[in-house]
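S., here's the first fold you wanted:
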Amino acid sequence: MTSSELSMSTTLKRRHGRLNLKDEEDILEASNAALRDLESCCSVPASVILPSVINVASARQTSLPIGHQTHHSFRSLAHSESDDEEFGAERASMSTPSSEKARRCSTFGVASRNAQEERDDSSSSFARGQPRTPPPAEMEDVATSNIIHTLPNELLTLIFEAGSVLTYPSLVEPKSPFVPITVKKVSSFMNTVMHVCHRWRQVAIHTPALWTTLHISRSRKALDNLPSVKDFRNPMPWVTEHLMRSQCLPLDISLDCRHISIKSVFNQLIPESHRWRSLVITIPSVQDLPNALSSLKKIPVPALETLEITSLKYHDSIAPNLTSFFRGGLSPNLSHVRLNRVSLSWLAFPLKGLTTLDLRFVIWPTFPHLAEMLSGSPNLQNLILHIDNTAAKLLDRRGRAAINIPSLRSLEIRLFSQGSPTICPFLQIFSIPALESLTLREVTSSDWCRILVYFRVNCTSYPVLRHLRLSCIRGLISVDSSAVRAFPQLTHLTLNGIYSSAFCRLLVDEKTDDGYRVPVWPNMTSLSIRGDVDLNVNLLERAIIARRRMGRALMNVDLDHRKPSED
């Protein structure tokens, strides 16, 4: 057979979506020519998927070598590391291909053309032994793939670390404490990285910092699929794997206790308690907490900095008997505590290193007990209080002295009231002369008037209060000289979900337009307005220009028209 006859006999023809060749010997010749063409042209990008004529059982989404010495295979989630070895052996055996392998290679050589005209033209050039030129879009994919795989391992590690922080599960808190909290989960970033390619998997496995965050949970579906109760109580293998790969680094642990055996999980975690940096526990209700925390009574956690315990359901002031955990100085570095709908008495006070205390609709102790707790935290700087009707009765001072917190810098109060309680009695609980920032959330317009009266009378008790945050005040509020006299040293004002035009109108004038004629916040340099759909931009612009002409320029103005944020 002459070369021209061989060329004609190996011409690839497509009829009704099928590849027709003359006989097996011709297939072998065509496959060798296909391999030569593929080596001479640019690499096929990873996005090119094998055509439908290939047997699905043997198909794999792959890319040809990007460099002379480096090979990257992109796999689906079902593939393991052994797939890479099999694929490498398959490529090595192509020098003496079987008829089946030759048929697959020949098909792959022509199937990456995007249009029917390209397929016909490529068949002719393939038979002539001419290398093809990839289309521009394909060249762009190849270049992008090459750039990604030139990133050094150190840079990949930094990217992976940043991405792993974004997958932390969050709690969606409703406005009413009587509505259950929902857990908003996101897909595991690390699981995605591990299944991109063999190199990324190896970089991730050998980077201990990527394995220090453990989100331990189980879906309801996975729970129903467990064969027996014994499997429910068995240790989770992946938890052991994370602990091993994280080596000796600090651990950030999040436990969703709804569908897991908490005792079995703690049996895995407690041997590494000296590495716990943060611990977040989510329980269905307060009645489930004794079972969750019974293992922690005498466990030392010397590196623990953050503790958060959340009950998804409201407690109705009913708390089971539970001895406080981390007692006797077992958590010397604990600085951030957040309790949500659980009992404050379960926390082992005093906590000398405590700097931030976040209490959201907790089961409150009596006023003397609360005073005793906080007196042992001389470094407390941030206090967040979300209060309901039950707190008003338990925290009644009844003529007692206020709780002195000389180090407190920031205070947030949110009042959910279905009756007469107002926010002012809770302000009077504390003596906080160093307070710099005050946040008031979801107060009523009538309560706002009471707040102005309280601070106007007691403004000398807050000599350094300069930052005021108002969030979601219900109803229209009046803003006049009372607001200026209540907070005379204001430098930062943040309005979240509030009709802001009243404040902007006040900022236009140098002094209040009433009998008091007091200067309108002469020290203010920052204004933030968020969630005001009725924002009067022209009025705000007038205020900015007027402040600049007065020599009181607003150095920072932050605007966000989106829905007001919860936090």
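And the second, which I think is the more interesting of the pair:
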Amino acid sequence: MKVLKLIILSIAILANLSTLNANSENGVAKVMKVRGKVFYSQTKKPLAKGDWVPEGAKITTKARSFVKLLFIDKSNLTLGANSEVEVEQFPKKKAGIINLINGQLRSKVSKNYLQIDKKKSKLFIKTKTAAMGVRGTDFQVNYNPANNNTTLITFEGAVAMGSLSSFKKTRFLQDRLEKVVSSPTSVMVRQGQLSGVMPNVDSKPIEPVKINKQQLKALEANDGSKTSSNGDKNKSEKKQMSRNIIPPGMDSSKFSGAGGTEIMGQMAKADSNLKVPTSQAPTLTVTKADPKGTMKEGGFVDTNNALYIPPPKNAPVDPMTNEVIVPVQMGSFDKETGEYKNDFYVVNENGDMIPKNKPQITVNRNPASGGTKPNIMPEEPMNIFNPDGEKPLGNPMLPPVITDDSRPVNDGPDILKNTMDDRDQMLDQTNTTSTNRTRVKVILDRQ
């Protein structure tokens, strides 16, 4: 009896070992790290650290979840939250094909991948509308099936991007994908740049643009595993936004306790250093992408909607950092994750910016006259791509109006003029305070 049990136990152990060997032999990627709800799309079986993922597998992640895979070529891929990916093909002697069905992936690809021809791509990442050929780089891809937008951000190296939006089929061989990413309409997206295929803008990839440098750093530091807490989100929604009247590049401490003459001198010095584009119109406008798909650099990327939000065409440039100064109501980003956020507008997948009841923007000071602070509230909805129907921009802190050309909107104030008006008001209040003090002193002397 004991001998029989020993034989059965031995058979079971051998069967388990055989299964493990088979999994490692058939698998093309190993699960290195997993958090939250991550499972095979077909069977709903959860993935665990150490599992081998076979060719043809589809993987789904839920909210606040991610999985990191190490492929047989030593390249790694991190699938972010609320995403789905398919390991479509991963042969040992040809470039692999990864299909991003939804969401976000981050990948670092080994440069010496299986010693494949250096002139060809070592890995293909594709979505329904775009194909990317990789030859050794660090990059991020986002795809939103609601608008069929695909965006690509390159952190290191270069990635070739071509459009698949005109193709009806969804399955491609390596040779066909190589032709797509090498076609005359494809683009090469280099370090710090963004490109994308956005069918509502152009069937071809947009010309690569540099995104906001601070958002780029935050996105690069997040491999997809970081998430922002709800507490931080609520805090950001409740806090009062403010705008500083001191111009970019000025030392605010020099204004503390200064009299009107001193402030005038500092302002004159700052004004002489302000770098303003010569083509700046007296209003704040944004133009639609030109026929070549070119957009103004320095904007934000909305990774959830796979959108690029360009800054106003005539936005001023910070003389210290040489970066475009983006109006606060165009949004910002989460410093932890790099994700786009907007406290004043809801941006949907179509690029519509819909006002929401969020905190008021006030000038960052209490008026010396005891008056109330000016409020700047969102106006009616607008679209970042749709140029139809020019509408005036009521305040330079509001999102830009999209137009077909560079004609200014007549009713909108210039962002620099608005800043100057605020500073003039501050001077008037300073002078008024000084005058009142003099009057009090004269009355006391007479008594």
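Why I say that: The chain has a mean pLDDT of 74. The longest helix spans residues 415-446.

Talk tomorrow,
H.
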